[in-house]
Amino acid sequence: MIKKFIRKILGKKEGANGNTEPVVLGPGQHKIDPKLVSSNALRVTQTLQDAGYEAFVVGGAVRDLLLGVKPKDFDIATNATPEQVKRLFRRAFIIGKRFQIVHVMFGQDLLEVTTFRGASQDNAPKDEHGRVLRDNNFGPQHEDAARRDFTINAMYYNPATQEVLDYHGGIEDIASKQLRIIGQPEARYREDPVRMLRVVRFAAKLQFTIEPATRAPIPVMAPLINNVPAARVFDEMLKLLMSGHALACLQQLRKEGLHHGLLPLLDVVLEQPISMKFVTLALESTDRRVMAGKGVSPGFLFASLLWHQVLEKWNAYKAAGESPIPALHLAADDVLEDQTEKLALQRRIGSDMRDIWSMQPRFERRQGKAPIKLLENPRFRAGYDFLLLRCESGELDAELGEWWTAFYEADPEQREELIANAPSGNGGAKRKRSPRRGPRSRNRGENGGGSGGSGDGGE
Questions:
Q1: What is the spatial distance between Cα 274 and Cα 285, in angstroms, rounded to a whole number?
Q2: Active-site option among 64, 149, 385, 456
């Protein structure tokens, strides 16, 4: 009913493919608020148009504008070549091997400008599984639309005329809250297996259903993701985990059968109750931070996802007779070495993760000068928030987290008193709660509790 209604309004006949000639919607039909378009996106499109080229806001930004959401990123599509685009802007850089694009910089704001892509060439270089390795073939706009992944990401918005161009029924699919791939699903997933991760991310983020034909091949073709370079998988997983809907995305991955083998850490996270509770708390808090517009540290996020693998190995090394601190370093080495190979973790992110993990035993030392020294650690906030996660999940006695919250908020005199009255020995093991404990943080909820420092500690 919704589709027929839209076709009636737009004058689109049943069965019309709309692939060569787009449906054109004016401002009175699409209801996009021009104020939601960034000033830099306007500058780029206007500069290209003034130079005689076509230029449109494209992809996810148009989708978000149609949904009444201010886009975080603006991509521009044009018929100008990368070299022609580069000549028009002072800070512009051509990047990419598989397909060249131009990054145009305005201060810290980055806009991605792509040249309309032509129809896929049969002789384009591919790997043995059919994944396209390189394709710099340019073409007209309707071919560019056909090359895009999903109908809702294949629309073009011209800020100058305030018109939306829709080649593949994206408006209809947005109205019916449906994700539909453009073209033959098996062929499109084989060209780029990362599209299977993208459909999961969009479905979870937008709360759209996946059209049956688009969903059907995913369980069978999921192993193709193993052939994608680790760096690309990592980038896509980072987008998924930092989308503001990380928990929903992981649940959708499991539903579609994409978690096994894709990320070994997810096999553990999603199948062990203890680690699942810990990670759920971390992801829920991260989602709250993203939705509130706060920063999130990838290092904190991956430290949370991998913590129970570290914990398992840490306990094994201690059981074998290794001292606690060296045992933790050995466990961290093992996990990071394994995951860096599979995930292409950046060195900086790995360093952040190691810092957070290595601080955990130090929180159990609450006497002498140890608490003051730990408080002076530049990464204290991230380690402290990680500790609160461990306490909240039931891994550690809540008293330990409450003591550190009181210590963190106290003045120097109060800190001396807390140290003087701190229990000796292993203060982190699960045990009967001490009758004396520090007050809960008044800002606990504001800072995000367990992963509140996922922004503070990681910046």
A1: 17
A2: 149
Name residue 87's amino acid.
Answer: R
How much of the chain, in percent, has pLDDT values that exceed 90? 57
| Domain boundaries, given as residue ranges, for the chain | 2-176, 190-258, 278-456
Instruction: Provide the token pair at 209.
Output: 């259903």
Say which residue the tokens 């840490």 belong to. 314
Choosing from 73, 192, 267, 338, which is the catalytic residue?
A: 73
Residues 6+ apart with CB under 8 A from 394: 274, 277, 430
Strands 178-179 and 55-58: unpaired
The catalytic residue among 64, 75, 173, 352 is: 75
In SS3 terms, the chain reads as CHHHHHHHHHCCCCCCCCCCCCEEECHHHHCCCHHHCCHHHHHHHHHHHHCCCCEEEECHHHHHHHCCCCCCCCEEEECCCHHHHHHHCCCEEEECCCCCEEEEEECCEEEEEEECECCCCCCCCECCCCCECCCCCECCHHHHHHHCCEHHHCEEEECCCCEEEECCCHHHHHHCCEECECCCHHHHHHHCCHHHHHHHHHHHHHCCEECHHHHCCHHHHHHHHHHCCHHHHHHHHHHHHCCCCHHHHHHHHHHCCCCCCCCHHHHHHCCCHHHHHHHHHHHHHHHHHHHCCCCCCHHHHHHHHHHHHHHHHHHHHHHCCCCHHHHHHHHHHHHHHHHHHHHCCCHHHHHHHHHHHHHHHHHHCCCCCHHHHHHCCCCHHHHHHHHHHHHHCCCCCHHHHHHHHHHHHCCHHHHHHHHHCCCCCCCCCCCCCCCCCCCCCCCHHHHCHHHCHHHHCCC
Catalytic, 75? Answer: yes
Domain made up of 278-456: CATH architecture: Orthogonal Bundle (1.10)
pLDDT in tens, 302-351: 999 889 889 999 999 999 999 999 999 999 999 998 877 667 778 889 99
- pTM exceeding the 0.70 threshold for the entire prediction: yes
pLDDT at 8: 44
CA distance 26 to 30: 6
CB atoms within 10 A of CB 266: 19
192 noted as active-site residue? no
CATH class of the domain whose range is 2-176: alpha beta
CA distances from 32 to 108, 122, 208 (A): 26, 38, 20
Least confident segment among 64-68, 339-343, 404-408: 339-343
